[in-house]
Every structure is written in structure tokens, then in C-alpha cells.
Amino acid sequence: MHTPTPDYAFDPHDPQFARDPWSVYRELRERCPVAYSDTYDGGFWVLSKYADVRTVALDPAHFSSAADLLLPANHDAGWLLPIQSDPPATVAYRRLLGHVFNARAVGAIEPLVRTWTIAAVETFAERGHCDFVPELAHPIPGKTTMQLMGWPVDEWADVVVAIKEFTTRAPGDPDRARAAGDVDRIRHRVVENLAQRRSEPGDDLASALLAGSIDSRPLSDDEMVALMMLVVFGGIDTTVAAIGNMLTTLDAHPELRQRLLLDDRLIPVFVEEVLRYEPPIQGFARFPTGPAEIAGHEISEDSKVFLVWASANRDDEVFPDPDAVRLDRDSNPHLAFGVGAHKCLGATLARMELRVVLEEVLRRIPDYTLVRDEIVPPRTAGTVFERLALPAVFTPARSEA
Questions:
Q1: What Å distances lie between residue 41 and 56, 70, 172, 181, 304, CA to CA?
Q2: Is the dihedral of CA 124, 127, 132, 138 positive or negative?
């Protein structure tokens, strides 16, 4: 193998990068949109332009997902399906989860999500201050995911804290290693859930997978665990980050907040723009199935190619004025949820959660202001981009009792 000469020291786990990845992405797009870095995994390619990212994501025949998609590779999360698979298996696995995430299922769970959101906001609305991360961003996706899994909703914190302690820390952080043990305990809970439902079928995800099949055969235990663990990771990790990013962005744009207060029909438009502007998932890797070429660069079969969704979302060839938050875009084909065979199954659910959270925040505490010097910035932006604390103050709301 000919090892390319590194032309950019791309390190998404550098705390300085995590504070402002957008300027790094801009430099990559302008200077070396197909860059080679040797910071991790013996070297890897970084794609930062929309066209290149989208082209590779839509070509699973030549760029596989059936491996560790993180940077660097880290197997503590375990096997996750369908994200670590290729078509046609990907399609079959997604079909097994479709009933959980289709529009009908999302519509059915929305009243519960609103009830939980109202209850969460009411715990601090009369107080005049809060931290949006533990008091709102954590419980809503946490409870929603527990409901999807068929687990006791009031145990949401046990799962959310473990997931967030794991995914918000860089590889090599001792606290991440400790959190990996808590993730193992979640995996053990999944195994126990499946064992129980073998003898006592119910109306939950484990029971549905036990009754399901792929290629006319029952699912293996490893496949079922991999599917359920992705529901847990995806349901919590992405949406927690997205809620925080949404509330941060709105705080920075009072003129947009005023427009939303005057016309709540713009809230879904704002949600889409925030997903483009500060997507929770920064990127995932792909692996060439043979020698490949990307924008004139020869990519060897044993390479790793990192697709930076977040950079693609700020490509000015697709999004005019990309570093601005705008409600008047003619189109917004952002890649926050990926594209193609691996487009996020939970996208409709996440959009609903974000919309409901924003509706209730604007209804009860419309004048919230983040305490900027007390915000805890991201530790890492290797996969997920999110602030770790978002203290806010606001005019105390009157009791609705």
C-alpha cells in the first residue's frame, strides 16, 4: 500500500476543535476538501464537501458501512445495527424497526412526549432559572426511548447518564472507560429483556424482534442485541444533543425567536435549519470495497474514509450564506440525518421531539437567556457535538395550577 502524505492534521477530539469545528471545516472545504490525516487509525481520508460526502454515502456497493464507523475505531459501543451493515441486509434490518419509527408510531407517541415536556418545563418554570441539559434535554429523549423499548419510563436517568458519559468523552479519557462499563450494563439489560420475552411475549421491541426474521430465518441473539442497542444510542444521544443545539442557536438569534413567537408555523422550519447549522452527529466513516477515486484522489481498498456531515451542511455551493441561520431557504437538503440506505430511522421521531420541546419552552419561558459564561462546551466533537451544561435565566412563569 502506498501511504499518502498527510495534508491536514484533522483531530475531532481536540478540545479546541470541539469549541469551534466550523472554522476547521471551512478551511478543509477551501484548502483540501479531500484530505488525508494520520492522527488516528494509521491514517484516514476526510471528506468535507457536500457533493463528495453525498456521493460516497449513496454508494454502499463501493463504500461499506460494515465496520466500526467511529474515529478512531472504538469497539466499546459494540455492534450496532442496521448502521454497521450494507444493503441488502441494511434494508431488511430497517424493516424490522419500521413499526417503531414510522409516521403513525410517531403520531401515537407525540401526546406522551408533550406531557413529559410540559412536566419537565413546569419543574423549573416558576423558579426563574434552570440548566436545560439535565432538566430538559436529558429527560425527554430518555423517556421517549424507554417507552420505545418497553422499559419503565421512570428509570430513564440510569440509561441516559451512562450513554452521555460515554459518548461525550474522547477515547483515552479514563471516565469514558468507566462509562463503557455502564454501557455494558445496558447491553446486559437488553439481553435479559430478550430472555424474558422468549417465555413471556409482550408488546415491546424485544418481542417484535423475537417474532421477526431476516432472509426467512430468525434473528440471532447478537443481531437482536445490536438492533436494540442502536435504538438506545440513537434515541438518546442524537436528540439530547440536538435539543441543546436548538436552544443555544435560538438564544443567539433574538430576531428569529420573535418570529417564532409571532408565527409558530415557522417552528418546524427553524428545527430543520438548526439541524443543518449545528447537526448533533458530525460524521461517520465508510470503507472502500476496492480501489476507489474521489475527486481525483486515489483511495486504496484498506483505507478509512470519514464523511463529515456537519461540514457538508455548511458548503456554500449548496447552502447560500451557510454560516447564517435563515428561515427563508428555498430548500434545505441537509445531511444531519445522513442520506441513502443509512438515513436515520428515527429522523421523524427526533423532529417531533425537537418541535414539541421548542413549542413548550416558548409557551412557558419565552424570554429565556443562556448564561453564556457558565455554558460548558463540548469535550469532543468526534461524533456528537453538544454542550454539557446550558444554564438559563428567565422571568418566572406563573403557576398554571
A1: 20, 10, 14, 23, 8
A2: negative
Mean pLDDT confidence for 198-218: 95
Smallest CA-to-CA distance from 117 within 152, 150, 133, 141 is with 141
Helix (H, G, I), strand (E, B) or coil at 269: helix
Question: Taking residues 98-121, what's their average pLDDT?
Answer: 97
Asked if residue 86 has pLDDT above 90, the reply is: yes
Domains and CATH numbers, the chain: 15-393 (1.10.630.10)
Q: Which of 380, 356, 379 is nearest to 268 (CA)?
A: 356
| CA–CA dist 134, 123 (Å, integer) | 12
Give the C-alpha separation, 40 to 28, whole Å. 17
Residue partners of 279: CB distance under 8 A and separation at least 6: 242, 245, 309, 310, 313, 334, 335, 336, 385
- Res. 401: pLDDT tops 70: no
Report d(CA 55, CA 63) in Å as an integer: 10
Average pLDDT over residues 305-326: 98
C-alpha to C-alpha distances, 119 to 27, 126, 153, 250, nearest whole angstrom: 44, 12, 14, 22
- pLDDT for position 1: 52
What are the residues whose beta carbons fall under 8 Å from the beta carbon of 217, sequence distance 6 or more? Answer: none
The pLDDT of 14-24, averaged and rounded, is: 95
* Residue 131 contacts residue 390 (beta carbons within 8 Å): yes
Length of the chain: 401
User: Which stretch of DSSP H or E encloses residue 187?
Assistant: helix 174-199
> Taking the CB of residue 259, how many other CB atoms lie within 10 A of it?
16
Q: How many CB atoms lie within 10 A of CB 269?
A: 17
Among 89, 6, 21, smallest CA distance to 245 is for 21
